[in-house]
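Lecture 7 notes: from sequence to structure.
We start with the chain below.
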Amino acid sequence: MPIPSKPNSRGGRAARSFALGAIAAVALAGCQSTGRGPATTGSLRPTGTLVTSDLSQQNALAAVQTWGAAYGKNEKDQRAALNYAAALRAAGQTSQAVAVMRKAVILHPSDRTVLAAFGKALAEDGQFREALSVVQRAQQRDHPDWQLLATEGAILDSLGDNNGARERYSQALVLAPGEPQVLNNLAMSYVLGRDLQKAEATLRQALASPKATTRVRQNLALVLTLQGKGSEAQAFVSGGSPSGQAGANMDYLQGMVAQPNTWADLKKES
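Predicted structure tokens for the same chain:
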């Protein structure tokens, strides 16, 4: 599939913001775990990998220290590399996360989890074309992985190929029906197409799953805000979450709405 040029318009900047948010919601593996502890400083998947989108800024910085130390002791430790890169991404250090995962790929060239994490790090660093190539390399066409399909879709959304992205999400949902991470990405793709009602319905479907991450709730609040439902959005992020998480949800909402041009443009053209 041809890759369109990187968008440079206001709408393109909005697309990039949304798609990066969608990428951040794609897990490395498995369903969400609620296990927390001083050794991990954040949520862990059953595979022992951190959930980037579940880390607050404070937890992300602590996780950078914890997993950076583990990585420094043994760069060949796959789990340490994955968690260190995930913590760096959550802390906004995307270039360093790319460097960590680039070395991990050299050490584990055929590991799909490592390749997927490398692709996500590249995408969050704005290196979309290389990210797409890496994710496609990790995919096995005769035995596709739904998480890689979802990640590929988010990258295609970043590149402006919304139709191609939705094809990947549809394929992923065949393999993982009702998976909230895929539905989240699909909803963000609908937002890019100014179909806010469909985006809202899709996010509500995702949130109904017990596996839904914090980012799903945050994105639903964003979509509600774009539709002029500010009061409902604020009540939504404030209710049903612990006080600390509710505050993080509100910070996320306010930060995204405050982006120059992006939300005004989307709301105006919806």
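Points to note: The chain has a mean pLDDT of 78. The two ends are 28 Å apart (CA to CA).
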